[in-house]
Design goal:
Blueprint: E1 2-8, E2 12-19, E3 24-31, H1 36-53, E4 59-64, E5 67-68, E6 75-77, H2 89-96, E7 103-107, H3 108-119, E8 128-133, E9 137-143, E10 146-148, H4 184-197, H5 203-208, H6 218-226, H7 230-254, E11 258-262, H8 270-283, E12 294-297, H9 304-317, H10 323-356
Parallel strand pairs: 1-4, 4-7, 8-11, 11-12
Antiparallel strand pairs: 1-2, 2-3, 5-6, 8-9, 9-10
Helix pairs in contact: 1-2, 3-9, 4-7, 6-7, 7-8
Length: 357
C-alpha cells in the first residue's frame, strides 16, 4: 500500500510516495504557488502523477506550517499563506481528486515529530517530545504511543509558551514567547547584541558580515562558533539555556522519557546540546531524585515531515492500525515467541534426558 506525503513550505512543496515500511518510492519538488487555490491544484496534480507512475495511492497526508483544526482538514491560520484562515484544505483537494482517497492535514511540527518517533531518534520511546529549533520553535508531543493534538488541535505550540513577562515582542502578538529566545532569529539577535556591547571581541562575526552588525545571520554565528569564537559561543549558550529551561518546564507537566531536538540551529551539535542538557538538569524539579529524559538530535532527516504525515494518513484511512496497537501486537508476538522458544528448549532437554536413559 502507498501513501502520498505532501510537505508545504514557504518556498517549496516537497512530495513523496511512501510504502507501509516508510520507504520512499518516488519524490517531487516544486516552488510553492502564491495562492491557496493554486496550492490545491498542485497537490491534485502530484496525486494524479503518482497514480500514473506508481499505481493505487491509498491516502494523502498534507503537512503544513500553521494551525490545523481538530478535524485535521481545515487550516485555521498560517503565517505563510494569508488566505489560510478557516481554509478547508482537505475538502478542496478531495473535490479536485473526486474524493478518490482520504485526505488529512497535519501541522508540520507534528508531522516531523511523528516521523522521528516511528523512523528516527524517538524510536522505542513511550512518551516523546520533539522540539524543532528553526526560524521559530515548533513542538510535537507523542504520549503513550499516540500523537497528542489536544481538544482543539492546538497542542504542542511550544514556541508560544509565555517564558518572560513583558519580554521580546513575538509575531503572534504576545510578548516573551519561548521562540523569541530559542530559534534562529533569537540566535542572530543574541549575537548582534553581543557584538554591539563588545565590538573588540566581535571581529570574526563582523568579518563574516562585511562589517555590518545587522547583517549577522545564523549561518555566520554557527561558523564562528565552530571556530571557537567567544561571542558566537555566548549566543549559542543563551539559546541552550532557554532550551534547557523549556524542556524542564515541559517535564514538570508531561514527564517524557525522550526529547528529540531538530531544526537548522542544531547543526552545531554539542555546542548547543551540551548547554541544553546541563540547563535541563539545572531547572528540572527534583532532578537528583528522578529519572532523566534522553535528549537526542533528530536523525530522520529532511523527509521526516513527509514520512510522518504519509504514515498518519495511512493510519487515518484504516490501511494501517494505530501505532500503539501495532506496538502492542509486536510485544505480544515477541512474548509468544519467547514462550514458544522456552517450550521447545524444555522439549529438547526432555528428549536428551530420555535418550540418555
Amino acid at each position: 500500500m502507498y501513501a502520498l506525503g505532501i510537505d508545504i513550505g514557504g518556498t517549496k512543496i516537497a512530495s513523496g510516495v511512501f510504502n507501509e515500511k516508510h520507504q520512499i518510492i518516488q519524490r517531487w519538488q516544486v516552488p510553492t504557488p502564491s495562492t491557496a487555490t493554486a496550492i490545491d491544484a498542485q497537490i491534485a496534480s502530484v496525486y494524479r502523477e503518482a497514480c500514473e507512475q506508481i499505481g493505487k495511492i491509498s491516502a494523502i497526508g498534507i503537512s503544513a506550517a500553521g494551525n490545523v483544526a481538530a478535524d485535521r482538514k481545515t487550516m485555521t491560520f498560517s503565517a505563510n499563506i494569508p488566505s489560510w484562515v478557516g481554509y478547508p484544505l482537505a475538502h478542496n483537494v478531495s473535490e479536485l481528486i473526486h474524493h478518490e482517497v482520504p485526505v488529512i492535514v497535519e501541522n508540520d511540527a507534528n508531522s516531523a515529530g511523528w516521523g522521528e518517533y516511528i523512523c528516527g531518534a524517538g524510536q522505542g520511546s513511550q512518551n516523546m517530545v520533539m522540539l524543532t529549533v528553526g526560524t521559530g520553535l515548533g513542538g510535537a508531543f507523542i504520549l503513550n504511543g499516540s500523537l497528542y493534538r489536544g481538544s482543539y488541535g492546538m497542542a504542542a505550540e511550544v514556541g508560544h509558551l509565555p517564558m518572560v513577562p513583558d519580554g521580546e515582542q513575538c509575531g503572534c502578538g504576545l510578548r516573551g514567547c519561548a521562540e523569541k529566545y530559542i530559534s534562529g532569529t533569537a540566535l542572530e539577535r543574541f549575537a548582534r547584541a553581543a557584538v554591539r556591547r563588545r565590538p573588540q571581541m566581535g571581529k570574526r562575526l563582523l568579518e563574516l558580515s562585511g562589517g555590518d552588525i545587522d547583517a549577522i545571520r545564523g549561518q555566520m554565528v554557527s561558523m564562528a562558533a565552530k571556530e571557537g569564537d567567544a561571542l558566537a559561543l555566548y549566543a549559542f549558550n543563551k539559546i541552550g539555556e532557554w532550551l534547557g529551561r523549556t524542556m524542564a518546564a515541559i517535564s514538570a507537566m508531561l514527564d517524557p522519557d525522550c526529547y528529540v531536538i531538530g531544526g537548522g540551529v542544531v547543526s552545531v551539535g554539542d555546542i548547543l546540546m551540551k548547554t541544553a542538557r546541563s540547563n535541563y538538569l539545572r531547572f528540572l524539579e527534583a532532578a537528583a531524585y528522578r529519572p532523566h529524559a534522553k535528549i537526542l538530535i533528530a536523525s530522520a532527516g529532511n523527509d521526516a515531515g513527509m514520512i510522518g504525515v504519509a504514515d498518519l494518513a495511512l493510519r487515518e484511512s484504516g490501511e494501517l492500525p494505530s501505532f500503539a496497537a501495532s506496538q502492542k501486537d509486536e510485544k505480544e508476538n515477541s512474548k509468544k515467541e519467547k514462550a514458544d522458544s522456552k517450550k521447545d528448549e524444555k522439549k529438547a532437554d526432555k528428549k536428551k534426558k530420555h535418550n540418555k536413559d
